[in-house]
Specification:
The chain is an alpha/beta fold and 393 residues long. It has 3 domains: 2-107 and 233-301, FAD/NAD(P)-binding domain, CATH 3.50.50.60; 119-229, FAD/NAD(P)-binding domain (3-Layer(bba) Sandwich); 320-387, Enolase-like, domain 1 (2-Layer Sandwich), CATH 3.30.390. Helix content is 21%, strand content 31%. It is built from 8 helices and 25 strands. Strands 1, 2, 3, 4, 5, 6 and 18 form a 7-stranded mixed sheet that branches. Strand 13 and strand 14 form a beta hairpin.
Length: 393
């Protein structure tokens, strides 16, 4: 049995952020990290972005071990006993702690049929698998048209592959973008050589020799050398539930990122927190939130008493287009579009609720995230004319 002053379950960006926060206040306390992945923490967004554009693999690794963290990789925690402050992994090894951080993240959603031939893209192993397939074949099917699907379709096309996207919505990222922008992306991707099949689903995926056949809900048959899916994730809550920790759509934490059980904190994709600006409980599945929340949790584990008031941002690269965004974004919200040049080339999209700005999309507009955060904090009320030209590119 090993004892740690600080024990972290989860080897992603939130867990790594936890080690950073701890070391800011406690340079000596022992830190242990248990991760199901075989690799140490890395910058996950590079898996669908930078690595396909030539970023060296050695640049993605975090400096977790250099902070004096004892890494236990390829280990899954199967039992958490909050009363004894003890956890056990699948090998039967036990660890005790003074403070615990749950940074268990999420697991990719799977399609409701045999999926042994589908890469549910999430971790570095998935990237390596897909990259190896690109060295052997040329045709790929991407299932899903939101964040991961749109990024992977662009990435595979950039490295010279023929890509078919299939998704049930009418447009790329239709759930979060204005309808016209979503349909513009359909055409933009097609111009780049991507076959975009909207209103379509995957009905079966079968392997015959080295080729994979994807049959769609409408009866189409697509031949591919590889199939990759990005259809969202669900938070890993089983461990918390079994330990009696309060959960909802995630592990519930208070403003200091403490769970309902003393000395146990949660951060990252798995944590359901009160968004200080949106004034409601939410979960955010993006890098910035994971890193910043992990840091605050780590600092609080080491003796601070800080509230998490950060407004997380997220970003994406889609061929030559890109965006940064903050807050809540839904195609069903009241939307104000402010295009600075011709539509869809450069501009700002504001997402409104109850005459307040609840989210901001900075489309090919850079270095304006702080302005967007400041706007979200304003009480309003705002009318459309108040927002036109408010944030300039």
């Amino acid at each position: 049995m090993k004892h740690f002053k600080y024990l972290i379950i989860g080897g992603g960006l939130a867990g790594d952020g936890g080690t950073q926060g701890i070391r800011e206040l406690d340079p000596e306390g022992s830190i242990g990290m248990i991760s199901m992945e075989p690799d140490p923490p890395y910058m996950r967004p590079n898996l669908s972005k930078g690595l396909w554009k030539g970023r060296p693999v050695e640049k993605i690794w975090r400096q977790t071990k250099e902070r004096g963290t004892e890494l236990h990789l390829n280990r899954k925690v199967t039992e958490l006993d909050p009363q004894k402050k003890r956890v056990r992994d699948q090998e039967g090894d036990e660890y005790t702690y003074d403070k615990l951080l749950l940074a268990t993240g999420g697991t990719p959603n799977h399609l409701p049929f045999g999926d042994g031939n589908i890469i549910y893209f999430r971790n570095f192993q998935d990237y390596q698998h897909l990259r190896a397939l690109t060295e052997q074949g040329d045709r790929f099917v991407v299932i899903g048209g939101s964040f991961i699907g749109s990024e992977l379709a662009a990435a595979l096309t950039i490295v010279g592959k023929k890509v078919t996207m299939i998704f049930p919505e009418g447009g790329i990222s239709e759930n979060i973008f204005p309808g016209a922008l979503s349909h513009f992306l359909n055409d933009y991707y097609r111009e780049k050589g991507v076959e975009v099949l909207t209103g379509e689903t995957a009905a079966s995926v079968q392997k015959e020799g080295n080729r994979i056949t994807v049959r769609t809900g409408s009866g189409r048959s697509l031949e591919a050398d590889g199939v990759v899916a990005g259809i969202g994730i669900h938070p890993d809550l089983d461990l918390a539930k079994e330990a009696g920790i309060r959960v909802n759509n995630g592990i519930n934490v208070n403003e200091r990122l403490e769970t309902s059980v003393p000395d146990i904190y949660a951060a990252g994709d798995v944590a359901s927190f009160l968004h200080a600006t949106l004034e409601k409980r939410t979960r955010v599945e993006h890098e910035d939130n994971a890193v910043q929340m992990g840091k605050v949790a780590g600092r609080n584990m080491a003796g601070a008493s800080e509230t998490y008031t950060h407004i997380p941002m997220f970003y994406s690269d889609l061929f030559d287009l890109g965006y940064e965004a903050v807050g809540e974004m839904s195609g069903k919200m009241k939307i104000v579009e402010d295009w600075h040049e011709k539509p869809f080339k450069k501009g700002v999209v504001y997402y409104m609720d109850d005459a307040r700005v609840r989210g901001v999309l900075l489309w090919n507009v850079w270095e304006k995230v702080e302005a967007a955060r400041a706007l979200m904090k304003e009480k309003g009320p705002f009318k459309e004319k108040d927002l036109k030209g408010r944030i300039k590119g």
